[in-house]
């Protein structure tokens, strides 16, 4: 619905300054585009991850499997999040460092001097200059006949990207805030009645006042699912045979059997060894006899 934001607003009559109805088209288009880019980033990284091979000498235990796979999965999550964040930070840095002029006159005002030289004066938001600080902001508003209606927690920044990043989603959970937006929508716009606040009681890892920058930084991911399966790993290995060990406390019958077997073994050994030992002992105890000759 928001992709057509440029044609659904009531015209702000007699307002010199651009209001939200003028920038909403870019605002929501950027939001939609970052959602699409986040989705593409995730799938690109997952495709590369799935192309990797996991090789083991033999089938390993499920505990060892998880201990080896989980660090790789956690590193993948971090890499996915950093991938988009790094790209966006580069874009923001290029725009600000080169003082690029936006399509809409948000970062500067155009002033014509007597010599017909065009000058760009940096926007100043409550003492914060867009020339030196890209995070300057003020609260976004609607303007009708020079009457301003401010939109809570939706920001007007130096650039549309910064406006989006500095805003939070709390307005979309608030009935009063969404009512303000609906009042400035064209009544003939077909989706006007469908604009309702988000369900504040719906379970989410995000607070209802989280910034859009945080959502984009997390690639709009609500929850990571486990995308590895030990059963699939086991089936892909197709082992020909398996061995296993059962650890259990020995029962009384087992102990008794072992004692009897030990006793029987000792009995057999003693029956074999004792006669030979006795004979040897007796042989050593017998007096030796010999012949002695005397010469005179």
Number of domains: 2
Percent of residues in beta strands: 5-15%
List the secondary-structure elements in sequence, H or E: HHEEEEEEHHHHH
Number of strands: 6
Q: Level of helix content? A: 40-55%
Total number of helices: 7
**Backbone CA Rg:** 41 Å
Point out poorly predicted stretches. none
Transmembrane segments: 252-274
Keywords: Membrane, Transmembrane, Transmembrane helix
Structural description of this entry:
Keywords: Membrane, Transmembrane, Transmembrane helix. The chain crosses the membrane at residues 252-274. This protein is of the alpha+beta class and 296 residues long. The protein has two domains: 2-237, no CATH class; 249-287. Helix content is 44%, strand content 11%. The protein has seven helices and six strands. The strands form three sheets. It has a two-stranded antiparallel sheet with strand order 1-2. The chain has a two-stranded antiparallel ribbon with strand order 3-4. Strands 5-6 form a two-stranded antiparallel sheet.
């Amino acid at each position: 619905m928001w992709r057509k934001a440029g044609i659904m607003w009531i015209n702000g009559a007699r307002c010199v300054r651009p209001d939200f109805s003028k920038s909403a088209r870019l605002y929501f288009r950027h939001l939609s585009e970052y959602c699409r880019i986040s989705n593409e980033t995730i799938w690109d990284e997952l495709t590369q991850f799935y192309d990797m091979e996991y090789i083991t000498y033999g089938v390993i235990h499920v505990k060892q499997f998880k201990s080896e796979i989980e660090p790789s999965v956690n590193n993948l999550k971090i890499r996915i999040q950093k991938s988009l964040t790094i790209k966006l930070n580069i874009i923001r840095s290029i725009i600000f460092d080169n003082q690029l002029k936006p399509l809409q006159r948000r970062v500067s005002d155009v002033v014509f001097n007597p010599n017909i030289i065009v000058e760009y004066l940096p926007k100043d938001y409550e003492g914060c200059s867009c020339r030196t600080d890209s995070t300057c902001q003020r609260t976004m508003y609607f303007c009708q006949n020079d009457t301003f209606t401010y939109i809570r927690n939706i920001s007007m920044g130096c650039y549309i990207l910064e406006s989006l990043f500095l805003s939070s989603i709390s307005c979309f959970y608030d009935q009063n805030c969404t009512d303000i937006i609906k009042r400035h929508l064209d009544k003939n716009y077909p989706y006007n009645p469908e604009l309702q606040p988000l369900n504040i009681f719906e379970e989410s890892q995000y607070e209802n006042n989280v910034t859009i920058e945080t959502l984009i930084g997390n690639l709009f991911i609500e929850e990571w699912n486990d995308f590895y399966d030990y059963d699939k790993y086991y089936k892909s290995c197709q082992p020909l045979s398996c061995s296993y060990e059962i650890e259990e406390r020995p029962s009384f019958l087992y102990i008794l059997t072992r004692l009897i077997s030990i006793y029987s073994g000792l009995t057999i050994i003693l029956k074999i060894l004792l006669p030979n030992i006795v004979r040897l002992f007796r042989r050593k105890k017998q007096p030796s006899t010999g012949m002695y000759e005397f010469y005179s």
